[in-house]
Design a protein that fits this description.
Helix content: 40-55%
Number of strands: 8
CATH class: Alpha Beta
Order of helices and strands: HEHHEHHEHHEEHEHEHEHH
Structural class: alpha/beta
CATH architecture: Alpha-Beta Barrel
Strand content: 5-15%
Number of helices: 12
Oligomer: single chain
Radius of gyration: 17 Å
Number of domains: 1
Largest sheet: 4 strands, parallel
Shape: globular
Length: 235
């Protein structure tokens, strides 16, 4: 954000905010987006050129005015040396919270500390799990947080490997109880979304499948893709 430039980003944001959804996930660009696939990864360097917390605040204010909640996706490797300053900026930007996908894999020993820093600022640390996250770690993070859950369907964004959606949803649901669970990473078809919904997912997050339309400035294709994906949610 903004990608590929502010004018284009803003025009597609305007399109998106007129559509039906609850949460806006805003990526904070970084040099080491380990868990992003090739489509999202290539956006980071360009987006870093135009990123500022002032602009982030402007985007969030617009989204809030349209009734949306707003969450950052940010890597801990991007801010682990400046936690206080970074989280103050996240809070002051008006974001409701953040997803930190590398916390449990690369910075596991800092999970309690980071959870406390989020809590002090009254913003939500959204736990990020995958099928390889151990049960004990999931249970521990549920105790340290109180927001919704982000579960990766695939190992990274824009990547597709065979998965047993019914077993994956059943497992995380059995551990998380009534907590809201949203699935992301590699979701790009209404069929997959319908399957997730049928087996008990509360929502889905989509990013990679929309980026090509933004890069080609194809507003019609963008809107058509979103409507197709929404068909799996609201059918």
């Amino acid at each position: 954000m903004p990608y590929p430039d502010r004018e284009t980003f803003q025009s597609f944001l305007d399109d998106l905010l007129g559509m039906r959804f609850d949460y806006l996930e805003i990526g904070i660009p970084t040099e080491k987006p380990y868990y992003d696939g090739p489509v999202i990864r290539r956006t980071h360097r360009k987006a870093m050129e135009g990123f500022s917390f002032q602009y982030l605040k402007e985007v969030v204010n617009i989204s809030v005015s349209r009734g949306k909640k707003n969450y950052a996706l940010v890597y801990y490797n991007h801010f682990h040396e400046s936690v206080d300053e970074f989280l103050d900026n996240i809070r002051d930007s008006g974001l409701d919270g953040a997803i930190v996908p590398d916390l449990l894999t690369d910075y596991y020993d800092e999970r309690e500390y980071l959870s406390e820093q989020f809590r002090k600022r009254k913003i939500s640390l959204i736990p990020f799990f995958t099928s390889s996250t151990p049960d004990r770690v999931i249970i521990e993070m549920l105790d340290l947080t109180d927001g919704w859950i982000y579960h990766g369907l695939q190992p990274s964004t824009g990547i597709r490997v065979p998965v047993s959606i019914d077993k994956m949803v059943a497992r995380i649901r059995s551990l998380c109880g009534n907590r809201e669970i949203i699935f992301g990473f590699g979701i790009n078809s209404a069929e997959t979304i319908s399957d997730l919904k049928r087996y008990g997912a509360d929502g889905i997050a989509v990013g990679s499948s929309l980026v090509p339309y933004i890069e080609s400035n194809d507003h019609k294709g963008f809107s058509s893709e979103v409507r197709m994906l929404q068909g799996g949610v609201y059918d």
